[in-house]
From TrEMBL:
GO terms for biological process: Ras protein signal transduction. Residues 524-628 are annotated as: Disordered. Residues 534-543, 583-602 have a biased composition (Low complexity). The lineage of its organism: Eukaryota, Metazoa, Chordata, Craniata, Vertebrata. Residues 641-727 form the Ras-associating domain. It holds the Pfam family RasGEF_N. This is RGL1 protein. The keyword ATP-binding does not apply.
Length: 727
């Protein structure tokens, strides 16, 4: 079988891509071979005759809404077999269920007046046969709609579309299976609405992720739960929420509109997964910092426990809670606990590095994308050799699961798909020449939606039983605010420095870790300030090679350590960094870029794409154990062709700024656009703003429109910039 591009066909209101499909239908011996008594398959090609059949495949590329709906009935005839699924998964971006249903039933589904059958099959069928064919086509589309997108008809309290459909079926397909199915769906929706009014709705995500939140975690109570039990319960909650995600809620054109006042209830199923993600991350922070009386070794044990839980999530193929835990451990208030991290064992630090590397932003998160697709089609987790060595007990349990035949699904980090869909929505036009709906864009979006659906289907393989004791404990946790977690972090570090480790033992500890991971010795500065040289980052801002930089987490301006933040363990033994422009969800604003820790209201959480509050730091692929550490960008110093600048908005306090990584290739439009995204403003408004560097209280450096920021800036003063709207 071979395919050939057949160009385009243009009709009134539609444009089609045409593909010619050439299929061999017969192979026979030629005349001379038959005279010799040979068989075609036993003779060389020159003695055989092949017969081919060429068929035409038409796939609609763009069209009016009427044409797109009509194509639902003709797609199979055009051999565009995936069209119905693509349309149903994406039409909410350009039409409402009511508009589509009215066209389908009133315009094309009227069995008495519709000419659809006659148009498509002129002079070949009598009226009765034509009506039968049309009825079968309508039934096929409706069946697919109910199978794939039944949530489209959930419109309480009136259920207008469902009642219209039911009325159509009673008149045109009475006593059919379709009619009884629609009646059952209507009753199901009405019953669930009554349950919701009574305060008991089994589909409510709040039962899982919200709660009283009145208590700070008790370390002893938390330690009572076994690592694999915690991972299983987090996975149970994630599975319940992910299976309820309505795929079209993820479309960029819909998700990006959620911040408008009238859309506060838009995409609730996606919001629920984000709320759960943030709840997990905040729970990690509160268990580590919530109790002031903890000794450094106790706090390190809690960190170790969460790393073990993260690994258990990896075994369960739960990438959502896995990323939430890693993000919390990389958050500003946790990573800076350098003396606590020194007490974390070598093997567990290695495990932490491996888990973190899954979410490296290298090549657009290629590692996590490839792993996710690999796991989506496998029955069990595929652990690499180093993970196996680190977790022999976990391997035994995984092998036991395999022996028992217990299959597992895969829970993805939804932010990856949201990013892709927002990028597609931004890059491709909704309409093409002539005002036609660009359906090629919807085909591209469906490629992402199909992956979500595949993973949702895989989640049916999980066999997890809820542990109400853990769920109740999880729900009642009081989450720390950014200010509280930062304050407790500083208190814990000061106490550790003064009461736990002597300078001698502290230096010995740092030397041991740095030698282990980097093959070099370091001396930790006594104060939290950037030293002139140090291959390993200590607390925020301690090193010119600091692993990463984040936006200011708490809007404090008293110390630089709030804003220059390594993301791995303090003292950065793993030497992994992140670009503060990559990998945060930001504050509920649609954005295709990401932010570093603390770039918005919450210190951690979801990535880029503009999910709800919080941020997820991500990590560049950096040197591994024994390699020479590279120079990474830091605030107030240009090194290796890059640096970190801080950008605030004109009219706001100078302490409210966003940290941005720039390189020697970046010009004003690029940096301005990133700054607008960081401040949750429209990135298209680049031309409306100017970027200036603050030289002193009464002096500023204004950049020309296309200037190179790296080379044009004054490197002898603070790298502080203001984004100001042009007069």
């Amino acid at each position: 079988t071979t395919f050939q591009d057949g160009g385009e066909e243009v009709e009134d209101g539609a444009v089609y891509n045409v593909t010619l499909k050439k299929v061999q239908i017969q192979q026979a011996a030629n005349k001379g071979a038959r005279w010799l008594g040979g068989e075609g398959d036993q003779l060389p090609p020159e003695h055989t005759v092949r017969q081919y059949e060429t068929s035409k495949i038409r796939a609609i590329k763009a069209g009016t809404l009427e044409k797109l709906v009509e194509n639902l009935l003709t797609a199979f005839g055009d051999a565009d077999f995936s069209y119905i699924s693509i349309f149903l998964a994406t039409y909410r971006a350009f039409a409402s269920p009511r508009a589509v249903l009215e066209l389908l039933l009133d315009r094309f589904g009227n069995l008495e007046t519709s000419s659809h059958g006659e148009v498509e099959n002129p002079n070949s069928l009598d009226s009765s046969e034509s009506e039968t064919v049309l009825k079968a086509e309508i039934a096929s589309v409706l069946r697919a709609w109910l199978d794939q997108c039944s949530e489209d008809f959930r419109e309480p309290p009136d259920y207008t579309c469902l009642l219209k459909l039911l009325d159509y079926l009673k008149n045109n397909m009475p006593s059919s299976d379709m009619e009884s199915r629609v009646q059952n769906l209507l009753k199901q929706f009405q019953d669930q609405e009554v349950e919701a009014v009574d305060g008991f709705c089994s589909t409510s995500s709040s039962d899982l992720v919200e709660g009283e939140e009145l208590e700070i975690s008790n370390p002893e109570e938390f330690s009572f739960f076994q690592d694999h039990v915690v991972a299983e319960q987090l996975t149970y909650m994630d599975v319940m929420l992910f299976k309820r995600v309505v795929p079209y809620h993820c479309l960029g054109s819909i998700w990006s509109q959620r911040d408008k006042k009238e859309n506060k209830n838009l995409a609730p199923t996606v919001r629920a997964t984000i709320t759960q993600f943030n709840a997990v991350t905040k729970c990690v922070v509160s268990t580590i910092l919530g109790t002031r009386e903890l000794r450094i070794q106790q706090r390190a044990k809690i960190i170790e426990k969460w790393i073990h839980i993260a690994h258990e999530c990896r075994i369960l193929k739960n990438f959502s809670s896995l990323r939430a835990i890693i993000s919390a451990l990389q958050s500003n208030s946790i990573y800076r606990l350098k003396t606590t991290w020194m007490c974390v064992s070598k093997d567990i630090l290695l495990m932490y590095e491996e888990l973190s590397e899954i979410f490296s932003d290298h090549d657009n998160y290629l590692t996590s994308r490839e792993l996710l697709m690999k796991e989506a089609t496998s029955k069990f987790a595929n652990l690499d050799s180093s993970e196996k060595e680190n977790q022999k007990k976990s391997q035994k349990r995984l092998q036991l699961q395999k022996n028992k035949g217990v299959m597992q699904g895969t829970v993805p980090y939804l932010g990856t798909f949201l990013t892709d869909l927002i990028m597609l929505d931004t890059a491709l036009q909704d309409y093409v020449e002539g005002g036609l709906i660009n359906f090629e864009k919807r085909r591209r979006e469906f490629e992402v939606i199909a992956q979500i659906k595949l993973l949702q289907s895989s989640c049916n393989s999980y066999c997890l039983i809820p542990d109400q004791k853990f769920i109740q404990w999880f729900r009642k946790q009081r989450h720390l605010t950014e200010e509280e977690s930062y304050k407790l972090s500083r208190e814990a570090e000061v106490a550790a420095d003064t009461n736990i480790l002597s300078p001698k033992s502290q230096k010995s500890m740092v030397k041991r870790i740095s030698t282990l991971f980097l093959g070099t010795d370091v001396i930790t500065p006594a104060k939290e300030q950037p030293p002139k040289s140090s291959p390993v980052g200590g607390s925020s801002g301690e090193s010119t090679d600091s692993a990463s930089v984040s936006s200011c987490e708490f809007n404090h301006s008293e110390t630089e350590d709030v804003c220059v933040t390594p993301v791995s363990s303090p003292e950065d033994p793993l030497k992994k960094g992140y670009d503060s422009d990559k990998g945060s969800i930001g504050s509920d604003k649609g954005s295709s870029s990401s932010k570093g820790p603390g770039s918005s209201k919450d210190p951690i959480f979801y990535t880029g794409l503009g999910l709800d509050s919080g941020s997820i730091p991500t990590r560049d692929s950096g040197p591994g154990p024994g390699s020479v550490p590279r120079v990474l960008p830091v605030y107030n110093r240009q090194s290796g062709g890059s640096c970190i600048i801080r950008v605030s908005m004109d009219g706001l306090q100078a302490s409210v700024y966003k940290s941005i990584l720039i390189t020697n290739q970046d010009r004003i439009p690029d940096v301005t656009q990133r700054a607008l995204l960081k401040h949750n403003l429209e990135p298209d408004a680049v031309e409306d703003y100017e970027l200036v560097q603050v030289i002193s209280e009464d002096k500023e450096l204004v950049f020309p429109r296309d200037a190179n920021v790296f080379y044009g800036m004054n490197s002898h003063v603070n790298f502080d910039f203001i984004l100001r709207k042009k007069a």
